[in-house]
Amino acid sequence: MQELLELFQNPNARWVLFGSILLGFASGLIGSFVLLKKQSLIGDAMAHAALPGICIAYLIYGVKSTPLFLLGAAVSGLIATYLIQAIVNHSRIKTDASIGVVLSVSFGIGIVLLTYITRHSGGNQAGLDDFIFGQAAAMVRSDVQMIAVGSLLIILLTSLLFKEFKISTFDPQYAKGLGLPVKGLNAILMVLVISMVVIGIQMVGVVLMVALLITPPLAARYWTDRLEWMGFISGLIGAVSGWIGTAISTMGEGLPTGPLIVLTASSIFILSLLFGLRKGLLIKGVQRI
Fold first, then answer.
1. What is the reported pLDDT for 26?
2. pTM, to two decimals
3. How big is the chain by its Cα radius of gyration, in Å?
4. What is the dihedral of CA 28, 34, 40, 43, to 10 degrees?
5. Which listed CATH number (3.40.50.2300, 1.20.950.20, 1.10.3470.10, 3.40.50.720) goes with 2-281?
6. How far apart are CA 202 and CA 78, in angstroms?
7. CB of 27 within 8 A of CB of 200?
8. How far apart are CA 27 and CA 200, in angstroms?
C-alpha cells in the first residue's frame, strides 16, 4: 500500500498511469469494431510490422526519437496493410494466409534488425527492446503526453463516427443505400487502428498490442448485446487493465508493462466468461436448471 501511495505522489508516474488509462479506453473502444468486423488478425499484422519500421528509423537517424520511431512504425504498418490486400487481390491466397505471411515475415525482419542494432549500434542503450513488450518505466513525460493526446483524438473521432461505423459494420448494403461512403469509413477505421497500434506499442509492445485491442471487447460481449454499451464497457475494461498493469509494472522494478496489462485484461475476460450477465457460463448454467 505504501508503494502504491508513493506511486501516485510521483508526477511522472501519475502521467504514465493517466496515459495507460486513456490508451486502454481507446483500445477497447476501437477494438469493438475490429472484433465485429473480424479484422483481429490485421491488427496483429500491423503491430508486428511496426518493429522493422522502428528499427529502420533508428538505423537512418542513429538516435532515440519517439516521434521518428512512431513515424517509422506507421509507415511500415501501412506498407504491411497494402501488402496484405495486394496478395489477396493478385493471387489465390486467402486473407488469413496473407496476414500470416506478412505478419511472420515483418516480425522476422524486425528481430533481425533489432539484433543487428543491439550488437553493433548500442541498441540496448537506445531502448529499442522496450518496444517488444512495452515498458512504462522507460517513458518520459513527452512520450506519455503523445500517447494521451493520440488516445483522446481516437476516442473523439470514434465517438463522432460511431453511428456511421455501426451501420457500415452490421449492414454495408444498407449503409450504401443511405449514401454513406462505406469504403471511406473502412479506410478511416483502418487508419484509426494503425494509429492505435502505433501510439500503444511503446507502452504495451508490438507483440501484445493486438491483445489490448481484442480482449476487452471479447469480455464486454458477455455483459451486453448493444454495441453502444459494448464499446463503453470494453473501453472501461481496457482502462482498468492499463491502470492495474502499469501500476504493477512501475512498482515491480522493471517488470514488462505489456504482459501485465494483457494479463489483467485476460483475468477480467475470464471473470466475464464465468459471470457475464448475457452469455456468462454461470448464467447459462442457471437457465438450464
1. 94
2. 0.85
3. 19
4. -80
5. 1.10.3470.10
6. 18
7. yes
8. 9
Q: Is 268 exposed, middle or buried (0-12, 13-18, 19+ CB in 10 A)?
A: buried
Tens-digit pLDDT profile for residues 42-97? 777 888 888 898 889 888 887 777 778 888 888 898 888 888 888 888 888 887 78
3-state secondary structure the chain: CHHHHHHHHCHHHHHHHHHHHHHHHHHHHHHHHHHHCCCHHHHHHHHHHHHHHHHHHHHHHCCCCHHHHHHHHHHHHHHHHHHHHHHHHCCCCCHHHHHHHHHHHHHHHHHHHHHHHHHHCCHHHHCCCHHHHCCHHHCCHHHHHHHHHHHHHHHHHHHHCHHHHHHHHHCHHHHHHCCCCHHHHHHHHHHHHHHHHHHHHHHHCCCCHHHHHHHHHHHHCCCCCCHHHHHHHHHHHHHHHHHHHHHHHHHCCCCCHHHHHHHHHHHHHHHHHHHCCCCCHHHHHHHHC
| Grid cell listed for 157 | 473521432
Residue with cell 475470464: 270
CA 243 to chain centre: 15
The residues spanned by each domain of the chain are 2-281
